[in-house]
Amino acid sequence: MSRKKLRLSTGAAAVVTGAGSGIGRSFAYEVAKRGGAVLCVDIDEIKAQETADMLTSLGSQAVAYTCDVGDAKQMEVLADKAEGILGRPITLIINNAGVGAGGPIGEVSLEDWHWCLNVNLWGVIHGCHFFAPRLKAQGYGGIINVASAAAFGAAPEMTAYNVTKAGVLSLTETLAAELTGTGVKVTALCPTVVPTNIVNNGRLPAARQEFAKSAMTRFALTTADIVARKTLDALDRGNLYMLPQIDGRIAWRIKRIAPRLYAKVIGETYRLFAS
């Protein structure tokens, strides 16, 4: 059976950014479960190695790699080295690395804006820029870009985060159109609340920090492992969008039917829960 008749996520040679924890670690684990090899990329060398060690202990091929996805040169070097490190052509790119930053517009520092844009948006741009042409040239592969329901949900005080994820969604849609018919599949993951370390490692106003932490448990309707599994399945089916939770799917539809009403309701709801 040719590889094009197999599920793309089966036996993939994958590069996963932000693989040191959260959804990234779950993606690495799920790819390994499906018989794949994983280059576990993270800016935190220790966390990347933890993920790689976990996978190798299960009998999978996994290598840790330290990289700042916001640095174009580092990402170019990663793209050049990835095939040699895993010993075979890369077939799957998961641009997952992300950080959290927020606060009211006008109060978020420009430093935090640049920090968030550099990781969340430029990191994905770099991943697509350096890897998409390689997948296109080989005529086979997949790209998963981790956006968020924030890409279309635009909740108050998630300022920089919303903007970066909207950019990731637009980038993914553009890439999918460009790669149509090339043998390369593209999927945008848009989850709502998933318990990860993004709040602990993020830059949020002190007044909103505890609310954000509690939301990770109060409003979570799934786990990172389930999100990773569902997203890889969606990529195999050729789905452009993956909204793993029902609250995200409901918001997606309401936003398109009544955008102004949606903005009013989400604003009032946020103020109620955050007060």
Characterization of this structure:
With 275 residues, the chain is of the alpha/beta class. The protein has one domain (3-274): NAD(P)-binding Rossmann-like Domain (Rossmann fold), CATH 3.40.50.720. Helix content is 54%, strand content 12%. The protein has ten helices and seven strands. It has a seven-stranded parallel beta sheet with strand order 3-2-1-4-5-6-7, sandwiched between helices. Helix 1 crosses helix 8 (224-237), helix 3 runs parallel beside helix 4 (110-138) and helix 9 (246-257) crosses helix 10 (259-274). The longest helix is centred in the middle third of the chain and has 29 residues, at 110-138. It starts with 12 loop residues before the first strand and ends with a helix.
Percent strand equals 5-15%
Helix content: 40-55%
**Rounded Rg:** 18 Å
For the biggest sheet, the summary is: 7 strands, parallel
Structural class: alpha/beta
CATH class: Alpha Beta
CATH fold-level label: Rossmann fold
Mean pLDDT: 89
